[in-house]
Specification:
Elements: E1 6-10, E2 15-19, H1 20-43, E3 61-64, E4 67-73, E5 76-81, E6 94-100, E7 105-108, H2 129-141, E8 146-149, E9 170-174, H3 181-186, E10 193-196, E11 202-204, E12 210-215, E13 224-228, E14 233-237, E15 246-247, H4 251-271, H5 274-277, E16 281-284, E17 308-309, H6 310-324, E18 336-340, E19 354-358, E20 361-365, H7 367-373
Parallel strand pairs: 7-8, 8-9, 9-10, 14-16, 15-20
Antiparallel strand pairs: 1-2, 3-4, 4-5, 5-6, 6-7, 11-12, 12-13, 13-14, 16-17, 18-19, 19-20
Length: 384
């Protein structure tokens, strides 16, 4: 070995000779270990424990990360994402729900994407987003297996799918939805979803807590309502609107809502006694929009109790079907045309559309579409 190719490390006893090559190998190994440790720290930062024990009474809530978690039933929780101050759609807030049984827990919807962000809604990524959501869900679900089912494949309802991929969790998508949407929205491979058919698929969570599925098209082509008879709860997401009303641009989508919402009314009548029906609580996809008296109802203050009820389901069906029958033109029918929608930041495309109101049910659509749906010719003076 040539002298210029070696160096030495001196100990208390005698020098220990090592080659330059060996020194470089030691340095590279140190750098590799440091990088590995740093990578582990970044990718799996610890998050504080979620204090689910504080959720004792109905209505109790705990703030954790960007979420507000509320107890809305025995073993039933609302995970509210208050959203951000700018943007549209889910940026104004969205809700997920967790129903925990003795044998299984079911997560309904996956909210906004805070893992990668969602630029179209001005949703920015957030540190530890996946870890925080998992901490809440797993803490509340306990040791039972978890399954997840989305109501529809819109970016504010399937956004956190990435938090549960490759974790032994079955993630369900209803038939009729665009299976490729998560790929377009969040770069998520569609193969992570299992498809189910509404009306055939149920989720048995144990001890009689069975979650049924029901198709309500219009807002999307596979929109699904989840029904828990035991809890007298409906989780409707955006299928019936959320108090602010359903928006449609064509007759076909309006007819879908009219048909399917009426089927839902009849199904509830056959599945719940009259006493049970009036105890039903309806939880939507956007809690901040919920209000009795109709969000658009003139000269009425909003009364927000955190959910809607059986009247809301009936009113949406009556509103949609009433438009098809031209009832807003019939005095005393209950269906009101209350004017045109002003500019609304989260829904600019709805500006100038007609607001049709029946009780707490609201449909917002171009007035010419309403006339077309009813098979009527639109008066010339209405076009101004």
């Amino acid at each position: 070995m040539r002298t210029e190719e070696r160096d030495f490390i001196r100990t208390n006893e005698k020098p220990v000779y090592v080659t330059v090559k060996q020194v470089m190998m030691f340095i590279m190994a140190g750098l590799f270990l440091s990088g590995a440790m740093l990578s582990t720290t970044v990718d799996a930062q610890p998050v504080p424990p979620f204090k689910g024990s504080l959720l004792v009474k109905l209505g109790d809530e705990v703030k954790y990360g960007s979420y507000i978690v509320r107890k809305i039933g025995e073993g039933v929780y609302q995970l509210n994402d208050p959203g951000v101050t700018t943007g549209k759609s889910g940026a104004f807030g969205v809700d997920m729900y967790l129903v925990c049984g003795e044998k299984k827990a079911l997560m309904i919807d996956l909210g906004n994407n805070y893992i990668d962000g969602y630029e179209n809604n001005l949703i920015a990524p957030r540190t530890n987003a996946a870890e925080e959501l998992r901490e809440v869900v797993y803490s509340l679900a306990g040791s039972v297996p978890l399954e997840i089912a989305i109501t529809h494949a819109h970016p504010d309802h399937d956004g956190m799918t990435g938090a549960f991929i490759n974790r032994g969790v079955t993630i369900w998508m209803p038939e009729g939805e665009d299976i490729t949407a998560p790929q377009t929205q969040h770069k998520i491979d569609p193969s992570v979803y299992s498809l189910f058919k509404q009306g055939e698929k149920t989720f048995d969570l144990g001890e009689g807590r069975i979650i049924e599925t029901f198709l309500v098209r219009g807002h999307s082509l596979g929109g699904t309502v989840y029904i828990s008879r035991k809890d007298q709860m409906l989780f409707t997401s955006d299928a019936l609107g959320s108090g602010i009303g359903q928006g449609f641009g064509n007759v076909e989508r309006l007819r879908m809502l009219a048909e399917d919402s009426q089927k839902l009314v009849e199904y509830i009548k056959s599945s719940f006694t009259p006493y049970e029906r009036y105890g039903i609580r309806v939880y939507t996809g956007h809690w901040w929009q919920n209000s009795y008296g109709g969000f658009m109802s003139p000269n009425k203050g909003k009364v927000d109790v955190g959910y809607l009820d059986w009247r809301f389901v009936q009113d949406v069906a009556s509103c949609a079907n009433g438009i098809l029958q031209g009832k807003w033109l019939v005095e005393g029918s209950g269906l009101q045309y209350v004017g045109k929608m002003a500019y609304y930041d989260s829904w600019p495309s709805a500006e100038g559309r007609a607001i049709m109101l029946y009780g707490t049910g609201t449909v917002i659509l171009p007035l010419e579409v309403a006339y077309e749906a009813a098979g009527l010719k639109m008066p010339v003076n209405e076009t101004k």
